[in-house]
Amino acid sequence: MQWRASRSRRTIFHRVQSLPFGMTTPSPRKIIIAIDGPAGAGKSTIASRLARKLGYVNLESGAMYRALALKAIEWDVSFDDELALVQLAHNSRIQIEPSLGGNRVLLDGRDVSRRVREPDVTEAASRVSVHPGVRQWMVARQQEMGAGGGVVMEGRDIGTKVFPTAEVKIFLDADPVVREQRRLQQQNVQGAAAQAIAAELRERDRRDRTRASSPLVPAADALLLDSTKLSEDEVLRRVEELVQRKLSS
Ligand code: DC
Predict the structure, then answer these.
(1) Residue 192 belongs to domain spanning
(2) What is the rounded CA–CA span in Å between residue 160 and residue 73?
(3) Is residue 91 assigned to a domain?
(4) HSE (CB half, 13 Å, CA atoms) of 183?
(5) Ligand 1 pocket, Cβ-based, cut-off 6 angstroms
(6) What is the CATH number of the domain that holds 241?
(7) Count of structural domains, the chain
(8) How far is the CA of 80 from the centre of ligand 1 (A)?
(9) Would you say residue 84 lies in a domain?
(10) Shortest CA distance to 56 belongs to which of 149, 167, 156, 159?
(11) pLDDT tens track, the chain, 249 positions
(12) Choice from 66, 94, 123, 129 to test ligand 1 binding pocket (greatest atom count within 8 A of CB)
């Protein structure tokens, strides 16, 4: 297995993220914060702002599925071939490097941060992530990365499968139409292209919520936040409130 998530690397990440800007209430206790929810609910922005304020590491678990999906594209491995995908994962080095500008994604040492955001990889990531074997591999890697605490990890199954005992669990959702609009605005598309992107987003949502293995569902003890009518600042305020309550309990 070529995966590496060494302690020393994590220590470096902590140092990078601990720069003293906008830090709220420093606490010696480093907890795990899980933020789950569908695409377009605002997870990434909230996770990265929160991590920055707390001096925590922000880990985007979806980027790991994206990196494996890219490798499957490049190696011409079928998105339906679970065994081949698991084998591919074992033979890959997927690194997520939190930095101030967001997560840097390295695949076998190559920076693929931009490439993994492209539509073909987005679609492929959704397809490779349905397989239990792939998920098992990903979950084990993600658990290694977050084991020391001081981490905000975002995804679809962080509160239910990766860290079911996380001290703070948030499930961030929003009206599907609003989520679609946010995505289209981010990508600055209109007309027929927008229709196609919206349809793809709905399909990925359906796949995430209905897959047999770890479907997207809120953990029983998650704080459910609907960001449809809330500003980003308001969502962050509510999440921070919960974090501070946990840190002082
Ligand atoms: O969050 P994202 O859009 O970058 O995720 C890419 C894909 O990976 C998405 O289709 C769902 C999947 N995913 C998952 O199944 N479990 C996670 N913890 C994170 C992402």
Answers:
(1) 29-248
(2) 29
(3) yes
(4) 25
(5) 39, 61-63, 65-66, 125-126, 129, 155-158, 204, 208
(6) 3.40.50.300
(7) 1
(8) 16
(9) yes
(10) 149
(11) 334 433 334 433 333 333 334 455 556 789 999 999 999 899 999 999 999 999 999 999 999 999 999 999 999 999 999 999 999 999 999 999 988 778 899 999 999 999 999 999 999 999 999 999 999 999 999 999 999 999 999 999 999 999 999 999 999 999 999 999 888 888 888 888 888 888 999 999 999 999 999 999 999 999 999 999 999 999 999 999 999 999 998
(12) 129
